[in-house]
What does this fold into?
Amino acid sequence: MRVFVSIDMEGVAGVATLDQAVRGGTGYPRAQELMTAEADAAVRGAFDAGADEVVVNDSHGTMDNLLHAGLDPRAQVVTGSPKPLAMMQGVSEGDAVALFVGYHAAAGEQGVLAHSFSGTFRQIRVNGRPVGELEVNALYAASLGVPVGLVTGDDLVCAAASKTLPGVLTVPVKRAVGFHAATSVHPSVATERIRGAARDAVSGHARLECPPVEDTLHVEIDFTTPLACDYAMYVPEARRAGGQGLVREVGNATDLIRLISACLHLSAQATRETAAVAARR
It folds into this structure.
């Protein structure tokens, strides 16, 4: 039995600020330790439930945050970026279940460090529904027939998961106080709960169902600035929607992830240009 784990950082217990979540911050090394501990807890829970193989994808930022020596040696780790499937690199058709650890709310929603893939995205909608990393990644897993059995993070992303994913288990390890603030459980409490929930999710994977995946996905991406949208318009077949919006149809969840990734990297140039100009002052 093979289990896939996607681990992000913003939803980890004890993490609440950009100083912690961005490499170079004084709090980043400690956040790495906290993230690694929660990933390890999920891995150990999966093996407790009888998994033969567990693949962990480092899904945060540059995707090379995990301290591998702190992980169960039985785990396989997908590290580095860019990756063709971003946060879902390593999941395979036939996996028993996917576990999403350290996740956060979508851009435009309340939640600790809430965003959707990039700070240049104001909102992403698929077939008219607002989505974040949770929903997009779950959609991709569903396209392979892999259900999501566990989501951990703040109370708001866990509430979103319960509404979206039938039968999913959630572990809220902190309560959102604001974008940059949270009331968190102790790291040892978080890891204990995550290990137990991962064990239960893997043990009960047969009861889970994948949400349906529609044949055509109408994707709308609203950017934070017109310049970010300008760069994203280099995507073939993209159409402009107002000053800061892009629209495109894709035929499957793989192309949805690729579209989002392409827009992320293209629109990042707008951030670099703006930062360069601001630095001159």
